[in-house]
Write a structure and sequence with these properties.
Helix 1 crosses helix 2 (53-70). The relative contact order is 0.13. The protein has a five-stranded antiparallel sheet. Helices cover 33% and strands 33% of the residues. The chain has helices spanning 6-21, 53-70, 93-98, 157-173, 179-182; strands at 25-32, 38-45, 77-82, 103-112, 115-126, 129-134, 141-144, 148-153. It is built from five helices and eight strands; from the N terminus they run αββαβαβββββαα. With 183 residues, it is an alpha+beta fold.
């Protein structure tokens, strides 16, 4: 899920150690576009789930150095490093645990219970399964993590409030400069 194609997965093998050495985790990597206008999109965050503009710039510089040296992509491409955002993709088991109680959409690589797409409230993880409370179902469904090809949080008021609360907490933890310190 973090990489969709074989080329994505190969780039992850190259870039995961770079991100980790810089203090970040790659949430998702996608190489998109045709031969001439390709874009390498990397969503990343710190292990505690933060990613500010300065973090994006720092990781972008570290990745650029390795990409320039290894040259794993033929032709030109644009590198885009960003945070996963509020309505983020869920690509790791810890994402499903961290966002328990929030609504998500899952797409599977196979048909289960007559369908490939599911939407419901995340209910945590159990072993290698994602627990999800599906609308209209009495019991919590357990979906094998290995079956999930794409998962994403649904933008809700509750999720936006969580994002705002996390941002406010980060700002409260950041020392503010006084006018004397700026001079």
């Amino acid at each position: 899920m973090r990489g969709k194609t074989a080329e994505d997965r190969s780039l992850l093998e190259l870039l995961d150690p770079v991100a980790q050495a810089s203090g970040y985790e790659i949430v998702r990597l996608r190489l998109m576009g045709g031969e001439h206008a390709r874009r390498l999109q990397i969503m990343a965050e710190t292990p505690d789930g933060e990613m500010i503009v300065e973090d994006c710039a720092k990781l972008s510089r570290a990745i650029s150095e390795v990409m320039d040296a290894a040259d794993p992509i033929s032709g030109e491409y644009t590198l885009e490093v960003s945070s996963p955002g509020v309505d983020r993709p869920l690509t790791r088991m810890k994402d499903f645990a961290n966002y328990e109680g929030h609504e998500a959409r899952l797409e599977l690589d196979r048909v289960a219970d007559g369908r490939k797409r599911f939407r419901g409230m995340l209910a945590g993880v159990e072993n290698e399964n994602v627990a999800i409370d599906l609308e209209g179902e009495a019991e919590t469904a357990l979906v094998p993590f290995a079956w999930i090809v794409e998962a994403k949080l649904i933008l809700t008021d509750q999720l936006m409030k969580r994002g705002a609360d996390e941002r406010a907490a980060r700002l409260a933890d950041t020392p503010q400069q006084t006018p004397e310190q700026e001079d």
